[in-house]
Amino acid sequence: MSQSEAPIALDIDQLSVVFDTPDGSLSAVNDFSLAIRRGECVGVVGESGAGKSQSFLAVMGLLAANARVSGQARLGTEPLIDRDVAELNRFRGVKLSMIFQDPMTSLTPHMTVGEQIAESIIHHLGSSAEAARARALALLEQVQVTDAPRRLDQYPHELSGGMRQRVMIAIALACDPEVLIADEPTTALDVTIQAQILSLLATLKRERGMAMALITHDLGVVAGIADRVAVMYAGRVVELGTVHEVLKAPKHPYTAALLASMPRIDDSGTGPLPAIGGQPPNPRRLPAGCAFGPRCAKADALCRTDRPPLVGPGPGEGTRSVACHHPLQGTHHSREM
Questions:
Q1: Pairwise CA distance, residues 82 & 67, whole Å
Q2: How many angstroms separate the CA atoms of 26 and 20, rounded?
Q3: Is there a contact between 58 and 81 (Cβ–Cβ < 8 Å)?
Q4: Dihedrals phi, psi of 249, to nearest 5 degrees
Q5: φ and ψ at 251, to 5 degrees?
Q6: pLDDT tens digit string along 12-34?
Q7: DSSP state of 92
Q8: What's the average model confidence in pLDDT over 174-194?
Q9: By mean pLDDT, which of 169-183, 249-263, 270-284 is the weakest?
Q10: Quick one: which of 182, 232, 251, 277 is 20 to 30 A from 150 by CA?
Q11: What is the CA radius of gyration of the chain?
């Protein structure tokens, strides 16, 4: 079975998230739709505030109390939105797991590494303490933690940042989830450790056949591990396609601008990197038309009044979808934009 024929593990349909604040409603996610198949990694990229993390926190049922969520999300055939905590806990940590951005604040400081991994195994799988500890050790070895037997009885502050991130991955994998959400899993790690963590995630996805959503602001990270990429701007997906399609020839001006702002290995480095002019829109006052319009050189009167829908691929256009009235044509290299 090819990846495109694999069953859909996580299906998100027209998901929207609005936060009620003293200063008015804040629209964080707008009609976000994405399907991830078993064995597939989809990179979700965009600037800070684009709605990447909020989309998946909504799926996990982990948003703040002032959030209002509409739309649908399904884990296989099981609906996830508007379920109570007890129902969600049948899935969270078991079939659906998340690696959070900061392992130092996500790990419990007064519990040993072994206790934190075993806790999930005992709670969800009903294992004995002895069996859970044995599985915790096996998981630490699988995520390539050195001297794993000793690490079991250490506390988070005794580990390096890279080791703590590996422990977070071990906890997320403890109950063999069908879907793994990795939210900026290499934040604050040096380049060498970043590469090791990404290689580890790619191996685990392949070996376990998991579906994976990789949330990041770094297109370079996406290029190294993802099969497809969803580019978000102002709470919406503005471009979706295979990594090869999107990175070789972006069709949305925002995607092209993101690529242009990345350093290249063949660049002489003599000049400044291009920057995306202007600022992302205020989520309390989104423009009537295309949210990227005020920063886009191609914007015209239509862009200012009509929000472009996310349109699927036409004949010969592969799997690409793009939300733009004037999509780019041909191949666009990062220094041509």
A1: 12
A2: 6
A3: yes
A4: -145, 75
A5: -105, -25
A6: 999 999 999 998 999 999 999 99
A7: B
A8: 87
A9: 270-284
A10: 182
A11: 21
pLDDT in tens, 237-260: 999 999 999 999 999 999 999 998
Burial class (CB in 10 A: 0-12, 13-18, 19+), 223: middle
Query: What's the confidence (pLDDT) of residue 335?
Result: 40
Q: Where are the alpha helices (DSSP H) in the chain?
A: 52-60, 85-88, 103-106, 113-125, 129-142, 148-151, 161-173, 191-208, 219-225, 243-248, 253-260, 301-305
- Is the dihedral angle over the CA atoms 217, 328, 295, 63 positive or is it negative? negative
Six-digit token string for 301: 């009167």
Q: How many CA atoms lie within 13 A of 310 on its CB side?
A: 21
Distance CA 304, CA 287 (A): 8
Q: Where are the domains of the chain?
A: 3-95+177-322, 104-176
The CATH number assigned to the domain with range 3-95+177-322 reads 3.40.50.300
Q: Look at the chain and count its residues.
A: 337
List Cβ neighbours of 116 (8 Å cut-off, separation of 6 or more): 107, 108, 167, 171
- Which DSSP letter does residue 213 get? E
Q: How far is CA 101 from CA 107, 127, 244, 306, in A?
A: 11, 28, 26, 35
What share of the chain in percent tops pLDDT 90?
Answer: 66
For residue 322, pLDDT over 90 is answered with yes
